[in-house]
Design goal:
Distance between the termini: 129 Å
Structural class: alpha/beta
Shape: elongated
Number of strands: 6
Helix content: 55-70%
């Protein structure tokens, strides 16, 4: 469903399967919700557009849509993707999820990338998945992406989740704050604090409007800042400076080599002159010796 009528991107790219609605007026809201609430077994995607965020979630709150979804066991899903479950805070994730389940029994946690996870209610351990289409489907179906790492040099998986429009809950360690802007594209908590992690997860699960805003902002950040074009833009001044410095070093070395050559030439000339003087002095001494013998 495309309700961003100012920029009908879905309608342009997927005209055969996209319907439109305008949630600004009552008729548009009814038209949209009548088609969404039909349990026809078909997954539904809504392209809100920034101008419709607040209005859409205000509407869902007024009609109790999310409560009805929970009553029908339409479960919110927290997604984790990572191989090193221990280093990436797996123990804290499980502890936090128990707190989440205490308040949202329908919530689910999907774990991708590892199988070394104890069985717990609501936890689905999916193991390693190589099919990128299946990974994309998991991102599309998730409500929140969570990566509570203790140590994470640079979490590319967070950028992947953000590119799929998911709000991210993570820890403020290492390079993560360069990716997830706290309060803007996701929420950051201290590492090893399962209570804070659970609170952040519950905050977003309980406020879909905020979660959607963070997810949309995260996607914009990936598109506008966390891409190779921007990397090249940031690296170019540094590379230019290094090239200039290398040029200066090259010029300086050339001057030194030229000076050394001149000194060598001068020393050779001096040596030649000394040899000539020695030869002249020897000739003079020989002439004097012969003259003394004649006398």
């Amino acid at each position: 469903f495309d309700i961003n009528l100012k920029e009908p991107s879905l309608l342009e790219y997927l005209p055969n399967i996209t319907e439109t609605a305008d949630v600004i007026d009552t008729f548009g809201k009814m038209q949209l919700m009548d088609r969404i609430i039909v349990n026809d077994g078909v997954g539904k995607v809504i392209d809100l557009g920034f101008h419709a965020f607040d209005e859409f979630f205000k509407m869902t709150g007024e009609i109790g849509f999310l409560k009805e979804a929970a009553r029908r066991h339409v479960a919110p899903v927290i997604l984790f993707v990572g191989h090193d479950f221990a280093r990436k805070g797996g123990d804290q994730l499980l502890a936090a999820f128990r707190r989440v389940r205490a308040q949202m029994p329908e919530a689910r946690l999907q774990i991708v990338g590892t199988s070394v996870v104890p069985a717990e209610p609501g936890v689905e351990v999916l193991g390693r998945i190589d099919d990128r289409r299946r990974i994309a489907d998991l991102y599309a179906r998730a409500s929140i992406f969570c990566l509570p790492s203790y140590f994470e040099p640079y979490a590319l998986v967070l950028m992947e989740a953000m590119a799929h429009g998911l709000p991210c809950v993570s820890t403020g360690v290492c390079g993560i704050p360069e990716i997830v802007v706290d309060g803007e594209t996701g929420l950051l908590v201290p590492p090893g604090d399962s209570a804070a992690l659970a609170a952040a997860l519950l905050r977003l699960l309980g406020d879909p409007a905020q979660a959607a805003r963070l997810g949309a902002a995260g996607r914009r950040r990936v598109e506008q800042h966390l891409n190779w074009d921007r990397v090249a833009d940031r690296m170019s001044p540094v590379l230019d400076r290094l090239v200039n410095q290398a040029g200066e070093v090259s010029i300086t070395r050339s001057r030194i080599e030229s000076g050394v050559t001149q000194i060598k030439t001068a020393l050779a000339d001096l040596t030649e002159n000394l040899e000539r003087l020695r030869a002249q002095q020897a000739s003079k001494e020989l002439i004097d010796l012969i003259a003394d013998g004649d006398s």
